[in-house]
Amino acid sequence: MSDELAGVRWVRLTFVDVFGTSNSLQIPAHRFAHAVTEGEPFDGSAIQGRARALESDMRLKPDAATLRTSGELARVACTVLTPDGSPWPGDPRTALVGMLSAESPVSELARAWTSSAELELYLLEGGQPVDQAGYFDDREGLGISVMRMAADRLVDAGVELLSCHHEAGPGQYELDIAPLAPLALADALVLAKQLVREAAAEAGLIATFMARPLDGEPGSGLHLNQEVDGLTGDDGRLTEDGRAFVSGFLTHARGLAALASPTVNSYKRLHAGPEAPGAAVWAHVNRAALIRIGTGVGSGGGIEYRAADSSANPYLLVAGALVAGADGLAIAEDPGPPLEEMVNSYDPAELRAVRYQPLPRSLDEALDALLADDALVDAFDHRLLANLVDGRRAEAEAYRGHVTDWELERYLDEG
To answer: Does one domain contain both 332 and 239?
Structure first.
């Protein structure tokens, strides 16, 4: 380990709270070995929610396999320990790590599961998009140079990328991460957000991962392209197990939305355009479907989950996806026929034959669905869920009491 830290002066111990917010504690490099064996003390109230209550002494346990160096600075992903050294189950990374253990009911799927990820974001300059370019625009500019810089740093950190390109919205970009196992993918997504933000700040820009930051423009998704041997055949079509896997996502779609689309703003992306899902349906060509069967990156077909947005906590998102897929495989229910057209253009007579359920229209509705979903509730520690639900409920309540510019423009002179 000393060789890995040659020339390094500081190590950034990174962790995320239950909302997915990135945090860090920086220690001198000579303390890193001690932190790996004993954990580094810190105020754990930072990870228990947005409202600081009682001081809570915790320890950060670096995962040495995630150590990445850049000049005099290194960074490493951490899980959270209680003062007695045991994993704290309210930590999102700990929750995902627990699902990889042999005792977990999703461990068999987790060992076989890999996924690539499409991370979308906006680059803003003075609150406005950095450019007015469009989908796959090939013009050079500040935005794409920032994305290449972030991508280069991510590759240098050992994360393989498939591509980066301009997305459909002005100043909107996409970074495509190559398939990884569950924990590695979640760690890579956290790191990718950090590096994009840093590269943007160096250029005087702001990188935002809000679900829909600009009125009238596309939202930013976080699509998972999942691949598991045996779920698709050589022709890319779903096998019987593949159909059961998809059925799990349809069954748990509404509860999973609370993890995949976790903010008030998320529900201004869902239901809001031709490529944002509004219902729990599956398809091959319909890009508004919740689940889309594609060609994948490996030898088989990819099973794309499209409800997540870029504000999602990667650890909870991946964990929730594993729970949904594993429950589908266990129950072995068929998902019914695909819906290959937009719902509003589909023959109502045929629609009745399709398994169809609207996704939540609000954060509160998604949280209600999460709490009513026994499989998802049982998969997470009650303290983690309580912190998540209480914090998000508080956000929804604060939003309901906020007077927006739209309301002022519409109602100020009425009556």
So the answer is: yes
Name the amino acid, one letter, at 290: L
199-220 exposure pattern, b = at least 16 Cβ within 10 A, e = fewer? bbeebebbbbbbbbbbeebbbb
Q: How far is CA 330 from the centre of its chain?
A: 24
Asked whether residue 139 falls in the same domain as residue 76, the answer is no
- Tell me how far apart the alpha carbons of residues 324 and 339 are, in angstroms, rounded to a whole number: 20
- Only one residue has tokens 């500081």, namely 10
The model's pLDDT over 248-279, given as tens digits with 9 standing for 90+, comes to 999 999 999 999 999 999 999 998 877 789 99
Answer yes or no: do 237 and 165 share one domain. Answer: yes
pTM of the full structure: 0.93
CA separation for the pair 185, 162 (Å, rounded): 14
Domain that holds residue 67: 10-88
CA proximity to 74, closest of 38, 36, 37, 44: 36
Q: Which residues of 386-405 are buried (b: 16+ CB within 10 A; e: fewer)?
A: ebbbebbeebbeeeeeeeee
What are the tens digits of pLDDT across the range 341-385? 755 555 555 555 677 899 999 999 999 999 999 999 999 999 999
In the chain, how many domains are there? 2
Tell me, yes or no, whether 67 and 143 share the same domain: no
Q: Domain boundary residue among 88, 123, 146? A: 88
- 192 and 207 Cβ atoms separated by less than 8 Å: no
